[in-house]
């Protein structure tokens, strides 16, 4: 087990797109253990993505088990995750281990359906909402080389834009 | 890093809005060797307003003299005040208060007095007057920090609801991922 270094903005490697995981072996399990140790060592992050520690594979850890009032699936290891359905949107404030001392407003889907494998390669489907859905979207962005600062909107942004009639 | 400089100034500029103000002003500041910190620019009533943290690498008089031609040309009023504190002093809000109601004098004082009485620290406040000219609606959004529960704050603000002001208190949940 080891605490890994977290890449921080403006490290260009945070823009890198991660590769799918093909081998569900001991090497993967060892890395997941290190990633979890790294998450727990920092400021209370509900999630961490592999590319944040310069490991460019599609691996995310999510843990909302400490938030009993928030609907959630507890501690999850998500390998090759994919959002298959989106619904609704809301603005919420986000921060990131890779962007210290900054938070900003980001618009995210409020309900999602997620497909992902676990550490043994078994596929699962999840229905997620609210804070957990937001956390997944934040972490999955890392796998595609996106940070929340790429999506920040002004607090004056009109969430319910007026329809433009032609 | 600019954070090691403790001598920040707060530059305030106000005037009629037009494109190019920020670029002209910041170019002059850059030319003086000043660093910029946190800034907030917004249009208020169609006017340009900005408050800008400027590191005091130069004497105040020199900064003001350098900005005078641009301010004169663009019709901007400016202030330069010494600022205690510096960067990296963010506080995270945990409560949001949304207020809306028929516009009348005193809404802000009423709401914020109640919040202050609860020890609520306002970190961000923005307000606007919407609706039709004949029927203006005052809308205000506050984000801040409080140790009180949502229920306690809602209860304290409840008398305003009886007076026709809609007040909504909700948590601000900052996601760190």
From TrEMBL, chain A:
Keywords, ordered alphabetically = Hydrolase, Iron, Metal-binding, Protein biosynthesis
Q: Does the keyword Transport apply?
A: no
Q: Which reaction does it catalyse?
A: N-terminal N-formyl-L-methionyl-[peptide] + H2O = N-terminal L-methionyl-[peptide] + formate
Q: Does the keyword Iron apply?
A: yes
Q: Per the UniProt entry, what is one GO biological process? A: translation
Q: Which cofactor does it need?
A: Fe(2+)
Q: What class of enzyme is it?
A: hydrolase
Q: What does this protein do?
A: Removes the formyl group from the N-terminal Met of newly synthesized proteins. Requires at least a dipeptide for an efficient rate of reaction. N-terminal L-methionine is a prerequisite for activity but the enzyme has broad specificity at other positions.
NCBIfam families named among the record's database cross-references: pept_deformyl, PRK00150.1-3
Family per record? Belongs to the polypeptide deformylase family.
Spell out the protein name for this chain. Peptide deformylase
């Amino acid at each position: 087990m080891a605490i890994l270094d977290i890449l921080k903005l403006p490290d260009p490697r945070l823009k890198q797109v991660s590769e799918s995981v093909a081998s569900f072996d001991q090497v993967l399990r060892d890395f997941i253990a290190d990633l979890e140790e790294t998450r727990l060592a920092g400021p209370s992050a509900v999630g961490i993505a592999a590319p944040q520690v310069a490991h460019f594979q599609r691996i995310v850890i999510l843990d909302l088990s400490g938030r009993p009032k928030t609907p959630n699936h507890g501690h999850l290891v998500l390998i090759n995750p994919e959002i298959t359905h989106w619904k609704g949107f809301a603005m919420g404030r986000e921060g990131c281990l890779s962007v210290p001392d900054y938070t900003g407003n980001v618009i995210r889907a409020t309900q999602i359906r997620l497909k992902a494998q676990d550490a043994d390669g078994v596929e699962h489907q999840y229905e997620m909402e609210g804070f957990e859905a937001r956390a997944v979207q934040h972490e999955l962005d890392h796998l595609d080389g996106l940070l929340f600062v790429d999506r920040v909107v002004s607090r004056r942004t009109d969430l319910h834009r007026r329809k433009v009639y032609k | 890093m600019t954070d090691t400089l403790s001598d920040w100034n707060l530059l305030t500029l106000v005037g009629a809005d037009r494109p190019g103000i920020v670029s002209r002003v910041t170019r002059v500041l850059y030319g003086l060797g000043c660093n910029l910190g946190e800034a907030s620019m917004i249009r208020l009533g169609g006017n340009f307003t900005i408050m800008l943290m400027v590191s005091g690498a130069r004497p105040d008089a020199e900064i003001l003299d350098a900005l005078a031609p641009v301010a004169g040309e663009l019709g901007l009023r400016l202030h330069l005040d010494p600022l205690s504190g510096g960067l990296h002093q963010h506080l995270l809000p945990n409560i949001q208060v949304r207020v809306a109601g028929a516009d009348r004098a005193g809404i802000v004082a009423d709401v914020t007095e109640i919040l202050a009485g609860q020890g609520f620290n306002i970190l961000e406040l923005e307000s606007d007057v919407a609706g039709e000219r004949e029927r203006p609606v005052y809308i205000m959004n506050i984000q801040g920090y409080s140790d009180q529960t949502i229920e306690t704050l809602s209860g304290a603000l409840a008398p305003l609801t009886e007076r026709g002001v809609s007040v909504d208190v909700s948590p601000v949940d900052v996601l760190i991922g």
